Structure formats: structure tokens, C-alpha cells
Amino acid sequence: MAAKRRPVTKSGRPRARKGVKLSPTELAAPDLRLADPPPELEALSREVEGDGGAVLAAYREPLGGHPLLFCALPVEKVERTPFQRDVSDAHVRKLTLAMDRTRRYLDPIIAVREGGRYWTPNGGHRLTALKELGARAVLALLVPERRVAYQILALNIEKAHNLREKALEVVRMVRDLAGREPERKEEELALELEEPALVTLGFAYEERGRLSGGAYQPILKRVDGFLPSRLPEAIEERRRRAAVVLAFDDAVTGAVERLKERGMSSPYLKAFVVARVNPLRFMKGEPPGFDALFESMTRKVEKLDPGKIRPEDVARSGGAPAEAEV
């Protein structure tokens, strides 16, 4: 089947996608070379050389015209951001085997400088593979603005995140930022945190690693929002909301066990129970508040009578099994 083409404007350009507001620079390819780097880039270049690295080029990226350095950095001075997801050994193995076969490393990481060392927000697996192979240097696009390190979810081009990985990374970022910039408000970090449900789920995953967060994310998307509070206060509220979600999960798990005791064994049981008590499926207009909704659903789950559920009800519910993200 042929790929669906995007609608175009009169000028022949594809129409902007919903939510995209970027107006790119008018820089042509030759304009991206920086013959005279700005002072902040020159200072960063001197720091790179002092750290034992080498600046290979200075340029502007084509969308916003932001200045960058293309560098070779000592591999021992580069590390993943401290709030990044854990490295997948299977993915690192895949990368090392590919690099071993091709004898090439062609994908520069993104990096920011921090106290004589370098953080990469989206090159953890490539960096780990290079270190395992014994490389002494890594190629990096060095960004002067440190805040880019927190835009990890938007910038990540490596192994796709699952929900658990995304949520845990978001929580680590929130904690790091709360320590560095406690006056920042959570609602100011919409780009970095991606969606408010991830923050609540992240704190829940910390308490229950095998939580079936995918069963609750659609509900949270409707009733959870970014908080206007300063980050330290927002963290406390997120912990409280996570506890509410976990209490609901306890009730759902209890209902699933009661159904199993009546001989029902289906991978869809948890999804079925959640759908059975979720009023948002039929609700138009403004949904109830976070606490009101979860309190109502928890009561309904606790009163769920397995004697009134037939196996064909579960079969008809369909949908994906609510498995835990491991």
C-alpha cells in the first residue's frame, strides 16, 4: 500500500501538523557554517580543548539557528544524565555487534558540559557500547544550553521507551530539577515532562515496579494535569496521587482474583475490570476531578460481584491485555 501523502499548501510545502508552531530560519546550507563563533561558543571550545577533547566544527542547526559544536570527547569524561532510564543490555549487545561488523561509529550523541564532564541525554546505549568496545573517544554534538539535557524524551532517538521507562525518567528529572531550580513550577516543564500522567505513574512505578500502568494511563490523561505548584510541593502532590492510583490498583487486583476464583482465566481480566468501572468511556464534557473519579472507581471495584460476570462478557471486552511493563 502506498504511503499516505500529507496535504500541501499552495507553495507546495506540506501543511503544518497540528500543534506545530515552529517558523524555521531562512538559513541555507552554506549559512550554517560558523566562521566567527559567538563568544559563548569560543569559551566552550576552550573548555573542550582543556578537557582533552577536540572541536571539529562550529555550526548552526537549521531550524532555530542555534550555535553548536561538533566535538570529539574523551569517552571517560562522558556519562548518561543521572535521571535517564537504565541501560538495556540487549540493546547494547545489538549495538556492539553492529559496530563490530561494520567497524564504524556514525551516530554522534548529543551532549552538554557540566563541571568538566559531559552529560548525554540521548546517547546512553551508544556510549555504553563504545566503552565496552574500548573506544577512547566519542563524537558529540555539544549544546551550550544545559537545559537541553532535560528535554530527553523529546530528543531521544535510541531504543524506544516503554511506559515504565518514560515515567521513571520523568520522575528522576523532576527530582533533579527540584534540587537545582526549586522555584520552577511543574506546569512550566510541559516539554520536558511530556504529559502529567507520566509524573504520577513514575512515582507509582517507584513503589510498584510491575504496575500495569498502561491500564491506568488513558484515565490519567483525562483527569491529571500539570500542577501550578513549585516543584518541591508538586512532588508531594504527585506522591499522594500515586498512592491513590496504587490503592485503586489494589482494588482492581482483588477483583481480578475473585474472578479467577470463579474459574475465569483471561489475559484481559484487569483491562475488563478497569473498563467496567470507568465512567469516562460514556462521559461527554468535563470529567470529574482526579480524587472524585478514583474514589468512585475504587468503590465500584470493591463492590464488583463476580457472580454477575459471565465469561462471554470478558471475551467481548477485547482490547490488549493489561500486562505489567517489566
Automatic annotation (TrEMBL):
Residues 1-36, 304-326 are annotated as: Disordered. Residues 1-20 have a biased composition (Basic residues). Residues 304-315 have a biased composition (Basic and acidic residues). InterPro entries: ParB/Sulfiredoxin_sf. It comes from the Bacteria. This is Chromosome partitioning protein ParB.
